[in-house]
Design brief:
Blueprint: H1 4-7, E1 8-11, H2 15-24, E2 26-31, H3 37-48, E3 52-60, E4 63-67, E5 70-74, E6 77-84, H4 91-94
Antiparallel strand pairs: 1-2, 2-6, 3-6, 4-5
Length: about 100
Amino acid sequence: MPDLHETIVRPVVTEKSSAAYGARKEYAFRVHNDATKPQIKAAIETLFKVSVTGVRTLIMRAKRRTYGRYQGRRPSWKKAIVTLKEGDAIEVFEG
């Protein structure tokens, strides 16, 4: 079981996640592969001092990459989309 700082790896800040934040107040995070929804909820509430109303998770598939004649692949990873209570915000996404 990962601890709080290992559960949340980093925020995912892209155009699509910024649009979701602006429209529906949803935040996207890259999380530990073994983290469960209750663990993710507890980690977000503890680290950012907010109230979480919903957590959705998905596995981002691995991608093949080529560089000239060399081939490789990026690993798969887990993403969590977190919805907060009305009025709460996380400062990482505000800037």
